[in-house]
Structures are given as C-alpha cells and as structure tokens.
Amino acid sequence: MVTSPSRSRNVMVVVDPTPQSAAALQYALSHALVEQDKLILFYIGNPSSWKNALATFIRKSSNSSSSAPNSISEGAFGTDADFLDQMRRACEVAQPKINVKIEKTDMDGKDKASVILSKSKDLRIDLIIIGQKRSLSSAIL
C-alpha cells in the first residue's frame, strides 16, 4: 500500500463484540494503518434488541431489591463500553502512535449500511473496514 507520508487518513473499523469484528480490527492494525492515521472504532447499537431489553429488565429488578447481587446485569451481559475499551487498549498496544477514537450511534430505524455511510461522510472517512461472516464452505473456496 502506497500512502502519502504528509497526509493522515481517517480509518473507520465497524465494531461489535464478535470474532468477525475482532478480525477486521486485527486486519486494520496489521495491514491498513500507518503511523499518522486516525483510527475510529465505530459501534452501532440497536436499542430494540432483546439483549438490551433483557439487560435493562435485570438491572431494574436488581435495583428494586438492594440486597440482590448485581453481577448478572454487569458481568454476564457486559456493556458496550467494556468491549470498546478492550479494543481501544488492544489498538494502543499494537500501534501506540495511532490516534484511536470511539464513536457510537444507534440505528434509529435505519439499516446498518445507511448508518455507516452517513457517519463516514460526517467524519470524512477515507477507508472503512468491516468484518464478514462466512460459512466454512465459502471460506474454503
């Protein structure tokens, strides 16, 4: 890859807590980023997902009984901030001179592709990296 040494790029990696997202981040760190680039970890939340609804329900029910342990709502499901902070730390270890920024947004009834493209225009992104789920048969071919 040939890049201009005087111009930094804005590189966006779309992240979530999946192995495909981790692979996309690993690819970005090892193949796409150079020292002066800015890395944006972009997470798209889905407020209507069952996981968020269930975590909210557990959090509310544990708040109503103060003697109940809070480990279910905090540990079993984790938070968005947990995996985002872990990804940021991994980036800082792998490439300490890269500026890493976290951006989060909700889908707001739109499809993911529209949200990604809209945010990439707003942030003037030069390169978008997205993980991909593949079946074993297509990975072999």
Automatic annotation (TrEMBL):
- Pfam families, alphabetically? Usp
Cited InterPro entries: Rossmann-like_a/b/a_fold, UspA
Ranges of residues in domain UspA: 9-134
Q: Which domain of life is it from?
A: Eukaryota
Question: What is this protein identified as?
Answer: UspA domain-containing protein
